Amino acid sequence: MDMMNSIASASMSMSAAMFQQNYSIAVTKKMMDTEELALQELQEMLPPSSPYNFDIRV
């Protein structure tokens, strides 16, 4: 019976670790989506680039 408890305990620990990893990945993906939207909004706020390209050297 002790071996069954060990197997069950290991299974529960593994399940909890997988849940934690999946949750962490989901939060990271959501954060990346939010950052992408923020960058898109920032690009829309920036003035359009000039068609004239030149370098100024001192």
Tags for this model:
mainly alpha, 58 residues
Descriptive notes:
By secondary structure, the chain is mainly α. Helices cover 76% and strands 0% of the residues. It is built from 1 helix and no strands. The chain has one helix at residues 2-45. The longest helix is centred in the middle third of the chain and has 44 residues, at 2-45. The chain is rod-shaped, with a radius of gyration of 26 Å. It starts with a helix and ends in a 13-residue tail after the last helix. 0% of the residues are buried. The mean pLDDT is 89.
Number of strands: 0
Number of helical elements: 1
Bulk shape: rod-shaped
Q: Helices and strands, in N-to-C order?
A: H
- Stretches where pLDDT falls below 50 for ≥5 residues? none
Give the CA-CA distance, first to last residue.
Answer: 82 Å
Largest sheet: none
Question: What's the mean pLDDT score?
Answer: 89
What is the oligomer described by this structure? Answer: single chain
Give the helix proportion (percent range).
over 70%
* CA gyration radius, whole angstroms: 26 Å
Question: How large is the share of residues in beta strands?
Answer: under 5%
Q: What structural class do you assign from the helix and strand content?
A: mainly alpha
